[in-house]
Design goal:
binds phenylalanine, 10 strands, alpha+beta, 12 helices, about 350 residues, 7-stranded mixed sheet, BirA Bifunctional Protein, domain 2
């Protein structure tokens, strides 16, 4: 029986050495150490042995069983390593493949332009003052010297939040950033230690404005404005012109030319609109500037005495200038965007370009 055991071991190890995949190894285990293998046959014949033979054959059989099992384990590891090596060799990383670009999010074009405007104004000494989007009729119109039946107050132009029960002072969505002028001046004049001597102001008021209008390629119900306000002693129209000429050069380039055109706003006197030379055609005349050679970019003027008074500043002592511009409009002019609705359209093909 000992000879038979040796033969079993020799044959098993021999067949194991030629195995090269997991399936064959599984079959080998069933055949050589499984329940009906020749080795297990020896164990079942145990009963036939004499008392003296039993321990000898028993320990030999156990040794062969252990040897076969450890050989199988070794083979199994060997196979795993071979499989891994093979897959590593096959799945080579091609570092010469062009990379895939990762799309990163970015700021909305209007936000980018708002920040450009505010950066320039900050360099020129204008501090940001944020005012509210929900306003009263008093702040949005009355304090800004709008005559009682001015067309801008019409239902046509204004979103009223709460028109009932507030008499002639309904709550509304601001139609421009100018009510922030009153709030900023009142903040400063009321906090002043000497009420007759409130501090000078130089601020930029950014934010969303709302108008109850038909949405078209040229008008949206929601858009941004940036308002500028400077109040102090001896501020003149020359300061306004110098400030805006400087702003235009910083925003549209050193060579940008501009002109002031007389205009009207209830809260400024005198009032003007500023045009820049059309940067599409260079002033020759084209579709964008409607053949005029000029593009209107902002409204401005000297703060009306009544407005200064309403803000707590004595118009006999103080003067000031104000201007208001639209970042979306500037982007449209700069990038020849022919429809303002793109800004709220949420079409990534549009947004991606900025
Ligand atoms: N508030 C004006 C508008 O919405 C712009 C403006 C601001 C004009 C300040 C003059 C001074 O059109």
């Amino acid at each position: 029986m000992l000879d038979k055991l040796n033969e079993i071991e020799k044959a098993a190890l021999e067949s194991l050495s030629s195995i090269s995949d997991q399936a064959a190894l599984d079959a080998w285990r069933v055949a050589n150490v499984g329940r009906s293998s020749p080795l297990m046959g020896i164990f079942s014949e145990f009963g036939k042995l004499s008392k003296e033979q039993k321990p000898v054959v028993g320990s030999a059989a156990n040794r062969v069983k252990a040897a076969l099992e450890s050989a199988e384990e070794g083979k199994s590891k060997e196979l795993k390593i071979a499989t891994l090596a093979k897959s590593l060799a096959e799945e080579k990383l091609d570092v010469t493949l062009p990379g895939r670009t990762v799309k990163v999010g970015k700021l909305h074009p209007t936000t980018q332009q708002l920040r450009r405007v505010l950066d320039i104004l900050a360099e020129m000494g204008f501090q940001v003052y944020t005012s509210r989007e929900v306003e009263t009729d008093e702040m949005n119109f009355q304090m800004l010297n709008f005559p009682p039946h001015h067309p801008a107050r019409d239902m046509q132009d204004t979103f009223f939040v709460e028109a009932d029960n507030r008499g002639d002072n309904p709550i509304l969505m601001r139609t421009h950033t100018s009510p922030g002028q009153i709030r900023a001046m009142r903040d400063a004049s009321r906090a002043a230690t000497d009420p007759l001597n409130p501090p000078s102001i130089r601020i930029a008021l950014p934010g969303m404005c709302f108008r109850y209008e038909q949405i078209t390629a040229r008008s949206e119900i929601q858009f941004n404005q940036v308002e500028g306000l400077a109040v102090g002693r001896n501020i003149t129209f020359a300061d306004l012109k110098g400030t805006l000429a400087d702003f235009v050069r910083r925003m549209f380039g050193e060579g940008a030319r501009l002109r002031f055109r007389a205009s009207y706003f209830p809260f400024t006197e005198p009032s003007a609109e500023v045009d820049v030379e059309c940067f599409v055609c260079g002033g020759v005349g084209c579709q964008v500037c409607k053949n005029s050679g000029w593009l209107e970019i902002l409204g401005c003027g000297m703060v009306h005495p009544v407005v200064l008074q309403n803000g707590g500043y004595d118009p006999k002592v103080y003067s000031g200038f104000a201007f208001g511009m639209g970042p979306e409009r500037q982007l449209m002019l700069r990038n020849k965007i022919n429809d303002i609705r793109y800004f709220w359209g949420n079409d990534v093909r549009f947004l991606e370009q900025f």
